[in-house]
Amino acid sequence: MKKSVKYLLLALCLALFVCITAMVLGKARERRHLTTCNKLEISFSDTLNFVSEEDVREYLRRSFPVFTGQRIDSLRLHEIEKSLNSRSAILSTQAWTSDSTLHISIVQREPVARMETPDHAFYIDDRGFIFPIQGNTGKRFPIIKGNLPLHEPAGYKGLPSTEEGRLWVGQIMDLLNYMGKNKWAAKIQHMEVSAGGDLILVPAEGKERIIFGKPEEFAEKFGKIGEYYRSIKPSVEENQYSSVNVKYKGQIVCRR
């Protein structure tokens, strides 16, 4: 067979393949164009309970009052994601469609600590993002309360609004990470911030209040706390000291 005939047959086959593919895609687009949304499926990638399936349905009803019955290819998926992501307890959203179903997958913000000021309480996540208390996770988070250098109003969501607040939250994140890695987290009931800005650790057992000072120099300060529990506390009567100060360099100051 001549080369020219071979090339002609190859070109005809290729043209036929392109035509068939175009017809199939056209039919798929036509079916999609005619398909309407009649089902909503919501899933969560975690086990937190800040946002429920009914919450998501309610958010959608408010922002997109009519999406059931709409053509599946007319749904504004990016706007749905953006709207849900604006909710303080939602970290990210993915929206997609298949057949006649709108799928929503939610990742919730996970708190690393609960903050309490004299006026209100809120959570912070591992990015330092502040968001209101809501839902019930059934989990226990470290509690830090008192004179926090954070001045955001109740209901605020976002990063701390001042440089001082962002720096302090970053130090607290480092402190919580250190405590978790070195098995101190379970030994501390909660933490307080004094009027002077000192961080005070309240142990789960005993009446001592440990004056930690600024949230820095963790290894040295926890080393002194460990030394207190190993060497000093066993040598005195129970509840002998009301405070143990480790904020000064090279010193452990115990007061009755």
Architecture overview:
This protein has 256 residues and is α/β, with parallel strands linked by helices. The chain folds into 2 domains: 39-108, membrane protein fhac (Ubiquitin-like (UB roll), Roll); 111-255, Rossmann fold, CATH 3.40.50.11690. The protein is built from 5 helices and 12 strands. The protein has helices at residues 3-34, 53-63, 77-85, 163-181, 218-232, and strands spanning 39-44, 90-98, 101-108, 111-116, 121-125, 130-132, 143-146, 188-193, 199-203, 209-213, 243-245, 253-255. Strand 7 (143-146), helix 4 (163-181) and strand 8 form a beta-alpha-beta unit. It is elongated and about 90 Å long. The termini are far apart. The model is unreliable at 24-32 (pLDDT under 50).
Order of strands, widest sheet: 6-5-4-7-8-9-10-11-12
User: What is the molecular shape?
Assistant: elongated
β-strand amount: 15-25%
* Radius of gyration (Å): 29 Å
